[in-house]
Amino acid sequence: MKSVKIPLPIFIAKEGKWFVASCPTLDIATQGKTQQEVKENMEDLMNEYFRDPDTHKPEIESIMSVSLTNIPIDVPEGVLHGRKTSSSATK
């Protein structure tokens, strides 16, 4: 069977001792102890997702129309925990 390479966005976040990766396009997620491990786990999960005949697959148009953007918002000081951001440190 022929295959086509399609880049799929994944989001990786550190949650406690774990790195968690999710692929919103496919609505799947996994975890790993390192960023490298979570990337490998996600690649394995994505490959399994497309090989599984019982998993509903999205339309190619919906996969290709995905975009990623950042929306800057004002967050009150003290709401987030940890290091101060550079903008709050200069005030």
Explain what the structure shows:
- It is a single chain.
- This protein has a domain at 1-55: Double Stranded RNA Binding Domain (2-Layer Sandwich).
- Helix content is 29%, strand content 18%.
- It has 91 residues and is α+β, with helices and mostly antiparallel strands.
CATH class of the domain at 1-55: Alpha Beta
- H and E string: EEEHHH
Tell me the structural class: alpha+beta
Number of helix segments?
3
CATH overall fold name of the domain at 1-55: Double Stranded RNA Binding Domain
Give the percentage of residues in beta strands: 15-25%
Q: How many angstroms does the end-to-end distance come to? A: 59 Å
* Total DSSP E strands: 3
Biggest pleated-sheet summary: 3 strands, antiparallel
- Give the % helix: 25-40%
Mean pLDDT: 88
Computed over alpha carbons, the radius of gyration is 17 Å
* Broad shape: extended
Give a concise summary:
With 91 residues, the protein is of the alpha+beta class. The chain has three helices and three strands; from the N terminus they run E-E-E-H-H-H.
Features:
alpha+beta; 3 helices; 91 residues
SSE inventory with pairings:
Layout: E1 11-15, E2 18-23, E3 28-32, H1 35-51, H2 60-64, H3 86-89
